[in-house]
Each structure stands twice: as C-alpha cells, then as structure tokens.
Design brief:
about 550 residues, alpha/beta, Nucleotidyltransferase, domain 5, five-stranded mixed beta sheet, 20 helices, 17 strands, about 45% helix, binds adenosine-5'-diphosphate, binds magnesium ion, glycolysis, Hexokinase_BS, fructokinase activity, kinase, ATP-binding
Length: about 550
C-alpha cells in the first residue's frame, strides 16, 4: 500500500492543472513579446531572413545534413515539383567524446567524413566524375558539378546570411567552447575542402524552420503552415511573424514585401527565470548536473534527452527508500516469472542518463493486464530482473506522468504563438497547420492527443479552436526543409550572378579560400528567401508562391 500511496504522491507532483496552463500561456506571450522588442531575453526570437514558404512545385537534387542532438543524418533529396520527394539517407550516432571535443575541428572533420562516405555509397558516379574533372582542371570545380548542401544545425546561432551564422551557445549535451562565436558553415566547409569534396555549404537551416518549410511543401490544400516545432532530443519552434510586430532591429537587408518573416523562437529557453515552470526536486537536480545549468530549462522538462532522466531520478529515489517495496523481493508472491526481483549494479537506473526516453513510450503503450511488455523491457533495457506487476505499475504511473506533463508543457508555446498571431480570429483560415518533427512526438503514444487536450483547455482556443488546429508530422522535415533552402540559395546565386560578385569581392579579401563563407557575403545576398526565389525554380518571372 505504501508503494501505491507514494506513487500517487509523486504522480501528483507532475500534474499541471488547466488553470496553470492558462497562466503559463500568458507568461509565454509576455516573454515572446519581450523577445520581439530586444535581444538577450529568455526567448531569443531570432530572425531567419526567410520571408516566404514553398508551394510544392520546387524541383532538383540537393544534399542536406542534420546535426541533431543524438544523430548526424546525411541525405540527398530529390524534389519532384509535385509536393512529393525522394530521400536517401545515412544516419550515424554522434560519438559521445566528440560532443565535448577540445577543438571544433574534431567534430566538423567527423561530419565531413560522413558526407564523403554518403557520396561514395549513394552518388558514386557523379562523385567520381566530379573528382576526375576537378583534378584535371586547374580552376577547380565548375558550379554545375557542385552539390549544394543545406546544413541543419539545431543550436542557437546568430544568423548573418543564408549560409553564415555564429554559434551562440551549445545545448543538448554538446560542449565545445572552441566553436562558440565561430561561423559553423565555415567550419564545415573547411573540413569538406580538406577532403576535396565537390560540396558547397549553401544554406544554414534551423531544424524548426526546415520543418515549417517541409510541411509547407508537402501539405495539401490552401492552409499555410504557421509553426514548425521539434520534439526530439531537444525542443524548439519557429513561426511566421508579421514584420510590423518585430520591434528590435533586424541587421542586414531582407525582402520586406511579404510583410512577414519566420522567427526561430528558441523556446527551449522559455522561462529560464522559472517564473512559472513547475520544478520538482528531480528537475532541479537534473538541471544542476547538466552541462548548461540555468539554461534551456523548458527543454529540460519537455524533450527526449531529459524525460528518461527525470523518470530515472524519481524511480531511483523510490528504490532507495527502505520503506517502499519497489523492485525489492517483498512482492514475490505476485511475481510470476522468477522468485527474486533484483537490479543489476550495471543497470541504467544506476547511471546518469542511463534511462532512454524510449522506455517511456514502451510504458505508455503497454495496456496488457500484466504489463508484460513493460516488465520485459525493464529486464532487457534496464537489467531489472523479475519485476512484479506492482513494480511495473508504479514505474508506468510515474513514466506516464512525466510524459503527460511534457505533452501539456509542449502545448504552451504553441498556444502562445497561436493566440499572439490572432489566426483563430481570421475567418479565412479554417485550419491552422503546425508541422512537427522529432522522435518524441512521432513515437510517444498519444503525445499529440495530449497536446490537443491541453490546447482545448486554453482560454481563447477552447474545444472549437483546438479542432481547427492540425498538428502534422513533417516526416524527414529537416532534410526536405534544408534541401528547399539549399535550392533557393543555389538559384539565388545563379540568378543574381552572386558567384561572380563574390569572386570579385574575394580578390580583395586576403587569404580567403574558395568557399562561400566570407564577411562580404551578407551584404551581397541578404534577400535569402525572397518569394521570387521559389518561382525562379520554375523559370517564371513572377511567383506563384504562398506569400507568408
Ligand atoms: P535528433 O534530436 O538528434 O534530431 P530524434 O528526433 O530522433 O533526434 O530524437 C532523439 C531523442 O528522442 C532521444 O533523446 C531519444 O531518447 C528520444 N526517443 C527516441 N525514440 C523515442 C521513443 N520511442 N519515445 C520517446 N522518446 C524517444
Ligand atoms: Mg531532429
């Protein structure tokens, strides 16, 4: 009985009332507005210079790479021009030691190597052909030989041009101080050049923006995508904002004719000051022992990297409580597998970050009366032998509570953006489209349903408003989104003759290499995503695009 009572107590610590949700949405809106007025606030609201969305008719083959928090994906994307695409990809886990490497070069050399491997595997003919030609011409690669690459880099970056951005800080467990303040495109291009790869880093993309654009490319009908959101290793969102609402200065030039721009909110940092966010002792301890204490505190309650760790800490505390029977042998009478319940000293339960969030998905989806799937998972994944039904019930209750809290929290920025945009009052937009990506939202059972439930509880949205919101997975969103931006950047270069202009500029910059990461680039092409560029692809004079 003690176990049952303690489980209920802990579960209640993770509950968020509807009243709390409403206050949190108000707080989000106020922090979001602060971020529109000035820099250095908790919500960065970073301008992306993207002022139009694609319409599904774009065509071509592009490379896209995505450095998430867990994996590095390399893919080539063929945009078919009819809202469909074909995608080939390789995925490798980023080695832990590289996440905290001494030099930025170590990480970026690894990334370049993966791109080389991918080209060998999937584009061998083009790749070898280009290499042969490159060797035989002293002038180097011709433009048409080059693969244009969209680099999805999902860490806070101060974007200075379509393919130039300096790293503000690391998140999601990365910590390479050497890279802070450096242009991440230049870091990658330098390593690609060392390998003599025919690849140009054409565009720097945040995964949220990629998700928004990819959703917009693939989604049918006339509804515009308003938000692109990630719930994977970390969480973040980008949305379409009216230029007139952005009060802080936007450096450089951009096309203002659409009157709108996509902003990268960096909502992982929502409420770093903890005005409203719930804090259990496990949240506080996890933050203190993380590589970035005090930062990304919203992310630390919502995303895949952290949910397993919150569960691990709360379960471990229960295991260490002598008064409680959790994973101890006292329940053997109802233990139908073996007679002794035991936890291996090597169990992930005993290790920092030792419980993967995917275990929460197993717990949430097991509705068998004996919780047999979860009990097997506890054995296989966590080396907890012969857990009883009561053990598994307690584990499931806590894991479900942490997952549910995350989904309700995830609804807060979405509700905030929606209310702030006023779209629900717009009689022309019957459906409000939200593109999402990331393993958590894709695989955690009912994550989106719990988000809808929370959205329906928010004043100003309500059940009717929630019905008009369509939260759709943007499958392979970052790959397709990055390809779309690479396409735009490549066409932009060609159509505007930027390549020539850049060459001339280059002559005046001593010691610069032949890559597209130089100081003068921002002056040359800060119209990155003028609506015109999406039309250029189809060779028209003026766009048939979805103005934002
Ligand atoms: P990235 O953030 O690198 O782009 P993903 O979107 O795949 O990668 O997210 C990886 C994160 O999602 C990891 O933190 C992992 O623990 C978590 N995760 C993976 N599978 C699941 C699952 N089935 N349920 C919940 N979380 C998951
Ligand atoms: Mg991702």
């Amino acid at each position: 009985m003690a176990l049952d009572a303690e489980t209920k107590r802990i579960v209640s610590l993770f509950e968020l009332s509807d009243d709390w949700l409403n206050r949190a949405v108000g707080e989000y809106i106020s922090q979001a507005e602060e971020g529109l007025r000035s820099d250095g606030t908790s919500l960065s609201q970073i301008p992306t210079y993207v002022t139009a969305v694609p319409n599904g008719k774009e065509k071509g083959v592009y490379l896209a790479v995505d450095l998430g928090g867990t994996n590095f994906r390399v893919c080539s994307v063929r945009l078919n021009g009819d809202t469909t695409f074909n995608l080939t990809y390789n995925k490798v886990a980023v080695p832990k030691e590289l996440m905290t490497a001494k030099k930025a070069e170590d990480l970026f050399a690894f990334l370049a190597k993966q791109i080389e491997t991918f080209l060998h595997e999937h584009h061998k003919d083009e790749f070898e052909g280009v290499r042969r030609r490159t060797r035989s011409t002293r002038k180097g690669q011709k433009d048409e030989d080059i693969f244009h690459l969209g680099f999805t880099f999902s860490y806070p970056v101060k974007q200075l041009a379509i393919n130039k951005g300096t790293l503000m800080r690391w998140t999601k467990g990365f910590d390479i101080p050497d890279a802070i303040g450096k242009d991440v495109c230049a870091l990658l291009q330098t390593e690609l050049d060392k390998l003599h790869l025919p690849v140009r880093v054409a565009a720097l993309v945040n995964d949220t923006v990629g998700t928004l654009l990819a959703r917009s490319y693939t989604s049918s009908g006339h509804s515009e995508t308003l938000v692109g959101a990630i719930f994977g290793t970390g969480t973040n969102g980008a949305y379409v904002e009216k230029l007139s609402n952005i009060k802080k200065p936007i450096e450089g030039e951009y096309d203002a004719s659409t009157g709108k721009m996509i902003l990268n909110t960096e909502w992982g940092s929502f409420d770093n000051q903890l005005n409203i966010l719930p804090s259990t002792t496990w949240d506080t301890d996890l933050d203190r022992e993380s590589v970035n204490p005090g930062f990304h505190v919203f992310e630390k309650r919502v995303s895949g990297m952290y949910l397993g760790e919150i569960v691990r800490r709360s379960i471990l505390e229960m295991v260490q409580n002598e008064q409680l029977s959790l994973f101890k042998d006292v329940n053997s009478s109802s233990n139908d597998w073996r007679s002794t319940t035991s936890i291996s000293p090597q169990s992930g339960l005993m290790q920092l970050w030792g419980l993967d969030s995917s275990v929460l998905s197993v717990a949430a989806s097991d509705n068998t009366p004996e919780l047999s799937v979860l009990r097997q998972e506890l054995e296989d994944n966590l080396d907890i032998y012969s857990p009883s039904l009561e053990d598994a019930q307690a584990f499931k209750a806590i894991a479900d509570a942490v997952g549910r809290r995350a989904a309700r929290l995830a609804a807060v920025p979405i509700a905030g953006v929606l209310l702030q945009s006023g779209q629900l009052n717009d009689p022309d937009s019957d459906v409000i489209d939200i593109g999402v990506d990331g393993s958590l939202v894709e695989h955690y059972p009912f994550f989106r349903d719990m988000m809808y439930e929370a959205l329906a509880a928010v004043d100003g949205i309500g059940p009717d408003g929630a019905k008009r919101i369509r939260i759709g997975i943007a499958k392979d969103g970052s790959g397709v989104g990055a390809a779309l931006i690479a396409l735009v950047a490549a066409k932009m270069e060609k159509e505007r003759g930027v390549g020539d202009a850049v060459k001339r500029e280059l002559d005046t910059v001593p010691g610069n290499c032949e890559c597209f990461c130089f100081p003068s680039f921002s002056r040359l092409c800060l119209f990155p995503l003028h609506p015109f560029f999406f039309s250029v692809v189809e060779g028209r004079d003026f766009p048939e695009f979805n103005p934002l």
